[in-house]
Write a structure and sequence with these properties.
With 277 residues, this protein is an alpha+beta fold. The chain has 2 domains: 114 residues, Diaminopimelate Epimerase, Chain A, domain 1 (Roll), CATH 3.10.310; 124 residues, Roll (Diaminopimelate Epimerase, Chain A, domain 1). The protein is 17% helix and 43% strand. Strand 3 and strand 4 form a beta hairpin. The longest helix has 13 residues.
Length: 277
């Protein structure tokens, strides 16, 4: 199994070419492959390009073997892979289908930078999904480890839970609260988690716990969720830089809460795993 490895803001993915392998790896293989001590190590695997009735598509897998609906960093990486294998032309917007809906990618700077139209953020509980009456999930109380917090939630095609804090978040804090929130019964499909600090109307600092992956240096969909919520709550302007441990990501929130983000992508190398299944 030949794998191509890329990173975007420290968020790294393998790409497995669907043209060479008719099916993605099993969950057991994915878990071994992505393990940073017993395998090659990765935040997930991108399987594609796939062909659907709607057109070009990619499947996104987490290190625990589960399948994700969407990943901003993953989509930038996949677009760069398509460019490197001469299946995508720079400067030309291209639609890619995901489980979380279609996105539009545009490569710039010979593929080193990619813009992704992530789709429209949804704040209704029915979209996330969450139990209880249909409502916008904004500034609701929740008790975690004996302390009361305020959280908001959104969907960017995948679920997100964000806690806005009065001080910059830390890795220790997100690794404490992230697993609790990811598996909290309020989130019917589990959730991605962000701790966020609004530095000023144009800059937000976040730490991330990804569903199915754990602590990560960056997440494009998490950055999108935080940006959408910060605009919805009136904390920031529509053009924001989201600062993550892996680096900054520029995010723009349109009036209808459609999200566009632009970030870097780098090729790391190739590797071969001896057994696909």
């Amino acid at each position: 199994m030949d794998l191509f490895k890329y990173e975007s803001l420290g968020n790294d993915y393998f790409v497995l070419d669907a043209a060479a392998y008719p099916s993605p790896p099993s969950a057991a293989i994915l878990q071994k492959l992505c393990n940073r001590h017993l395998g090659f190590g990765s935040d997930g695997l991108l399987y594609g390009p796939c062909t659907t009735a709607e057109g070009l598509a990619v499947r996104i897998f987490n290190p625990d073997g589960s399948e994700a609906e969407k990943s901003g960093n993953g989509l930038r990486i996949f677009a760069r892979y398509l460019y490197d294998t001469k299946r995508l032309i720079a400067e030309t917007p291209t639609s890619i289908q995901t489980l979380g809906g279609p996105v539009t990618v545009t490569l710039l700077d010979a593929g080193q930078t990619v813009t992704v139209g992530m789709g429209q953020a949804q704040f209704l509980s029915t979209h996330i999904p969450m139990p209880g009456p249909a409502r916008e999930v904004l500034l609701e109380p929740i008790t975690l480890d004996g302390q009361v917090y305020t959280f908001s939630a959104t969907s960017i095609g995948n679920p997100h839970c964000t806690l806005f804090l009065d001080t910059p978040p830390t890795k220790a804090h997100i690794t404490q609260l992230g697993p609790i929130l990811e598996n909290h019964p309020l989130f019917l499909n589990r959730t991605n988690v962000q701790l966020a600090y609004v530095k000023d109307p144009f800059n937000i600092i976040i730490e991330i716990w990804e569903r199915g992956a754990g602590y990560t240096l960056a997440s494009g969909s998490s950055a999108s969720a935080v940006a959408a919520l910060s605009v919805r709550l009136g904390y920031t302007k529509n053009a924001i830089t989201i600062h993550m441990p892996g680096g900054p990501l520029k995010v723009t929130v349109a009036d209808d809460f459609s999200i566009t983000q632009t970030g870097s992508v780098a090729f790391i190398g190739t590797c071969n795993y001896p057994n696909l299944h």
